[in-house]
Amino acid sequence: MSPPVLSCRGIRKVFGGQVVLDDLDLDVAEHEVVALIGASGSGKSTLLRCANLLEEIDDGTIALDGEHITDPRTDPDLVRRRIGIVFQAYNLFPHLRVLDNIALAPVRVHRRDRAEAEAQARELLARVGLAEKAGDYPDRLSGGQQQRVAIVRALVNSPRLLLLDEVTSALDPELVGEVLTMIRDLKADGMTMVLATHEMSFAREVADRVCFLDGGRIIEEGPPEQVLGEPTQPRTRQFLRRIIEAGRLQVG
Amino acid sequence: MSLLDHHPSPIARERAAYRKRQTVRSVLVAAASTGILGTLLVVAVTGSPGWERVRQSFLDPRIGREALPEILSGLWLNVRLLVFCALGALALGLVVAVLRTLRGPVFFPVRALAAGYTYTFRGLPLIIVIYVLTLGVPGLRLQGMPPVLVLGGIALVLTYGGYLAEVFRAGIESIHPSQLAAARSLGLTYRQTMRHVVLPQAVRRVAPPLLNDVVALQKDVGLVSLAGPIDAVRAAQIATAESFNYTPYILAGVLFVLLAVPLIAVTDWVTLRAARRQAAR
Which portions of this protein are annotated as coiled-coil regions (chain A) (predicted)? Predict the structure, then answer.
């Protein structure tokens, strides 16, 4: 059997004396979609940033396709080329047009021909209904459009793994749908994804597995129906009750 | 209702009419107050007891005309020196600023050198740098010593490079870390991130203070005349010494202002264009 796409073992991360990730284990198989849920500060985003080597872990190992990427001798730039990440605040480059945002990595990192990279970028933009925005600067786009561009920018590198860090949290409610539709399509295409999210109903729909993080550990994981429907851990139940009270998850 | 066949309601028309009346009023008030203030200033200056003497010794058209060719040829030196020194100082400042952002133990000496440079040359008076370079360095009697003008230019580049490096560094540090994270996450190396993501945004952001320093440099390039070359101010000084009349200074001053106007206009235009291009709807 081939190794998991992402394999985290005993991850520990400390920020200024506070343990953010505490002996955390997580495996993500090919084509699998894993949703990380949990309160703010439970370590979801940190885990994603560690997996993309944007943060250095204090203990444990992370492997991508069986290769230890947390080995200090690996080149982080080469690893990041195989992992895409999309941020809560989009993080588009404001001085570059939409098309140039997308084509930057293919041209500069993968040394591909500019015309060819732009053609691919246009095609991807067209597929998500943003063809006519190619020449605009990001600030002229709505939040949902910006986030879709950010996802395209991550996809154009053909990553092995896509990390989505609360990609709908900064969006107005009526714009959330267009981004979620895109993620749904990615799942249909077989993209391996880890997403940190507050959208419980979306996690239930799209995820193969839901992991509930609390205090830097995964304290409960399983199929979405089980974790979100019949949680066994008291902390999970408490968390979901609050979410239901806040109106972010329909009961049943 | 479409945009075209919309008829404003009476209340909207009334509002528009009111705003129009207010605009006309503002223009009239501004014109009147400017006129009154201007008249008062002219009356105060020309009506002062010493005005005739001042006019003769500062605003003599004949002496101005006589000094003009010398001042213009001096100004040409200023312009040439400004172009080379501005380009040199911008390049040096950018390199030093980038060197100061490098992380990692290998770069410690480079970082320390860059920091030491900005500390030294921002603290050191320009006049002293010019003297050391134009008088001290030729004293070494090395082979292939460049002319005094070049040495003076190097002194200007060294001094202004220090200021500009700090402006560039402020710009680099003002770029949010999330931009770096986004760039690195795409697989861009540190260099590529700097080149394609950080610096373009940083330079645009600090363009006004950068060009502000270039305008200041424009006034300081004349200090190379301390070492001999004759710039516009020095030419004016010579003309003044010959005629005991200060008109050449005023003339040189006016020319400097005229020279700065396009530079300042370019600064404003660059800033505006960048803002407009990126602005939200």
Answer: 107-134
Nearest to A93 among B179, B280, B281 (CB): B179
In A16-50, DSSP assigns E strands to 18-28, 33-37
- Report if residue B264 sits inside a domain: no
Q: Is position B142 within any domain?
A: yes
Contact call for B181 and A54, based on CB within 8 A: yes
Residue A18 main-chain phi, psi, to 5 deg: -105, 130
Averaged pLDDT, A105-116: 92
Which residues of chain B neighbour A139 with C-beta distances below 8 Å? 278-280
**pLDDT classification of B280: cutoffs 50, 70, 90:** very low
Q: Could you tell me if B196 lies within 8 Å of chain A, comparing CB atoms? A: yes
- Compare CB distances from B186 to A76, A94, A104 and report the shortest one's residue: A104
Q: Which residues in chain A are closer than 8 Å to B182, comparing Cβ atoms? A: 87, 91-93
CATH code (residue B192): 1.10.3720.10
Q: What is the pLDDT of residue A252?
A: 47
For A:127-146, CB contacts with B below 8 A are: 137, 139-140
Write out the residue range of the structural domain in which residue B179 sits: 72-231
How far apart are the C-alpha atoms of B121 and B163, rounded to whole Å? 8
Residue A80: the pLDDT is 92
Flag whether B12 is in a domain: no
Asked if the model's pLDDT at residue A22 lies above 80, the reply is yes
pLDDT tens sequence across B50-87:
888 888 888 888 888 888 888 898 899 999 999 999 99
Q: Which of B181, B278, B281 sits opposite A94 (nearest CB)?
A: B278
Mean pLDDT value across residues B185-204: 93
Nearest to A105 among B181, B187, B204 (CB): B187
Domain segments of chain A: what residues? 93-158
Answer whether A167 touches B (CB < 8 Å).
no
| CA B6 – CA B126 distance, rounded (Å) | 65
Beta pairing partners, A21 = A13
Report pLDDT for A251: 56
Tokens 């005991």, residue located: B244
Please tell me the distance in Å from A18's CA to the nearest CA on chain B: 21
A105 and B280: CB-CB below 8 Å?
Answer: no
Helices (H), chain A: 44-51, 76-80, 98-108, 114-127, 143-155, 173-188, 200-206, 224, 234-245
Mean predicted confidence (pLDDT) in A33-43: 91
Residue B1: inside a domain: no
ipTM reported for the complex surpasses 0.90:
no
Residue A124 in tokens:
């991807």
Hey, which residues 22-61 in chain A have their CB within 8 Å of chain B?
A: 49, 52, 54
pLDDT at B105: 87
* Separation between Cα atoms, residue A227 and residue A215, nearest integer Å: 17
Domains contained in chain B, number: 1
Task: Say what the pLDDT of residue B2 is.
Answer: 65
